[in-house]
Here is the input.
Amino acid sequence: MAYSKVKYEDIKKLCNLVFKRFGFNEKESETITDVLLLSDLYGIESHGIQRLVKYYSEIKGGLININSEIKIVKETPVSAVLDAQAGMGQLVGEKAMNMAIEKAETSGIGMVVVRNSNHYGIAGYYARMAEKKGLLGISMTNSPAVIVPTFGKEAMLGTNPIAISMPAEPYPFLLDMSTSVVTRGKIEVYNKRQEPLPLGLGLNSEGEDTTDPGDILYNVPRKLGGGLLPLGGSKELTGGHKGYGFALAVEMFTAILSGGFTGNYVHLDGSDGSGTCHSFFAVNYGIFGDKKSIEDSFSKYLNELRDSKKAKGAVRIYTHGEKEIEAYNDKMKNGVSMNDITLKEINDICEYFDIQMSDYISKI
Amino acid sequence: MAYSKVKYEDIKKLCNLVFKRFGFNEKESETITDVLLLSDLYGIESHGIQRLVKYYSEIKGGLININSEIKIVKETPVSAVLDAQAGMGQLVGEKAMNMAIEKAETSGIGMVVVRNSNHYGIAGYYARMAEKKGLLGISMTNSPAVIVPTFGKEAMLGTNPIAISMPAEPYPFLLDMSTSVVTRGKIEVYNKRQEPLPLGLGLNSEGEDTTDPGDILYNVPRKLGGGLLPLGGSKELTGGHKGYGFALAVEMFTAILSGGFTGNYVHLDGSDGSGTCHSFFAVNYGIFGDKKSIEDSFSKYLNELRDSKKAKGAVRIYTHGEKEIEAYNDKMKNGVSMNDITLKEINDICEYFDIQMSDYISKI
Here is the structure.
């Protein structure tokens, strides 16, 4: 696939405008754009602006209701339950994490769970909202079932990412990962390249290891069996039951606590909205000690990890978030990579809304 | 290895007595015994009564101080930091989880972190303390460094288990897992059997995949390089950086937040105490909705997972905790399995303290 580079500020302006044409107001459009483009800046193309077309079709199809009001179902000084009422995931996500942050600043800990939402972009965006305020932040979301439980052949759990972030120098800590071995996006890449899938990533409709990425992508949305393997793979010996356990815990923290849909009911055709559930957690670690000392000891440990001895043939040990921050700095300076298919899709949407794409962005 | 079965009540009485002879009072001995034997009842031999000899040598060696007072360093309505002052892990563990439970019952959420502690047995014991009170419970602990970061060859993180438990019918949910592919105990089993290790579990001193379990067991405590692989294995493709991230997050939630030692400093010869750190977390999920409805929807989902379609050749899908509860019921009825080496070690300790082991236990 051919890639072009475009300036961040250009694509941001255009993206904002497109979301306004979808029907969102100025502030809403800015929030959604901010979440989407952080993904592209981090180099996570799958959750970035390439989602624009998909979001528009979900708005047209009724899964996403652009006029929904977020409802506060229940609230305490440390917690809240929000009903997104089929609204855009990024909007309820920002609101929920802001509530968790306020509660953490007032009470020490804040935990907000959300039901009846939609795709909310990268979980790491919300974890870093807390990190930027000098807090420990966690966010999780469920998603349409694609992970198969250990010894099963039916997708029953979402890819269920977990993001954890905390301030550190010179890089914040940012773990942002699905609880499957790889995401659906990675399977799509193998499929586009017509390359066989390495064993241990996914199962066919009989629940057997498969090397055919197209098979998985065809079967899962049609509920024909098979899907992605949880982190740890298909066997207990390699810890597959552990990844399955983490994916299940994410369903518990999102769908079960919020009273929403578990992954096996999310995004079923005919349901009213996608029913995706999220959770947001913020901790003011000042409740445990001097914040600066805690940050310093964390930075020291992360540095010890990066400086520890390398395996034969390896040149660098990363701590989580380092790659994302490096990608961010590079792309802010040198432009955001966009593949030609995505650029074409954006152009089509622009034409539909009578926007001249070339008035906004030009390839660098 | 030959195994015998002994009655739970018999081994409990003897174990209590031995801990009293070590110098613990009646209540302390009961708590430690309760934690240790739950591990045997769950079928997790490595963390059960076979630790008796090791604990005694750690008391004699000064790592464990039986007279230490647990110090409350800092406290808020939702949190506390405890300094175990080199005391027994089970004692500070029980106190810390009880504090987290009280805070959750009063404020909705409780989070207690502990520094300067020792081995505390199975993390699942503490998570279930909360579960038995109708709360969501989490516990984590760090441990002497044995996990190697992705692309490294130096053990820098403990096996760092995470346990999560929540009420459900007919089985509670109990995830209790190390963040390595397998625990050190599993490597010991391969070594005892003189069997080659499957690839993907551990690294040799150069940071290369190894099939030699003895190599890992020799190298790690001597800091010669190598160790266990994080969940997901040695490669980013198989998600090794995810397991590494979870292990790192456990260091953050235990050592960093409590102001204690990270895994690479735990249990170093010459340090005063082992420096192990734990964390305990309880949530009264009544803050999110009707408790009974939440439990019912969780039970329903766990049941759907167990009832979902099986992979070709598989007969059963488990949810986490099911195997432990089945083992518990079996062993309470039919006796606890103890291997001959452990029985011999207990007999030696009994002789040392002038206890006639046969007065207390007989093989079934």
Q: What stands out?
A: Chain B has a mean pLDDT of 95. Chain B has eleven helices and eleven strands. Chain B touches chain A through 83 residues (CB under 8 Å).
